[in-house]
Amino acid sequence: MFALPLQVIDKFLLQYNLGQVLLLVFVLATLAALTQRSLKIIALQTMTFGLLFMLVPSIDGPPLYLYLGIGLLMVAPMAYVSAGR
Asked: Which of the two ends of the chain, N or C, has the fewest CB atoms closer than 10 A to its terminal CB?
């Protein structure tokens, strides 16, 4: 019963590497966090994804995602400190 949706998801994800999937999830999660209108939530989420981009795709993808993770980890604490609520 659940095998068909899992096969469709598996075929879709096999076309992409882990860094690309994480980037898509990051964009979708940021859009979802924008509805809360809290810069602290977005900053914490950005820190989490920055750490994920630094640790996970270094095995699987190009070093572009490593640099993206470093950039996110540099920007997110500044956004957290400057957040009002």
From this structure: N
Residue with tokens 């540099």: 74
pLDDT at 85: 56
Q: Span 21-41, mean pLDDT?
A: 92
Cβ contact 17:60 at 8 Å: yes
What is the pTM assigned to this prediction? 0.77
Alpha carbon separation from 68 to 12, 40, 43, 54 (Å, rounded): 24, 20, 15, 8
CA distances from 58 to 13, 41, 70 (A): 18, 26, 12
Q: How is residue 8 annotated by DSSP? A: H
30, 35, 37, 41: CA torsion to nearest 10: -40
Length of the chain: 85
Q: Using CA of residue 47, residue 48, residue 53, residue 59, what is the dihedral sign?
A: positive
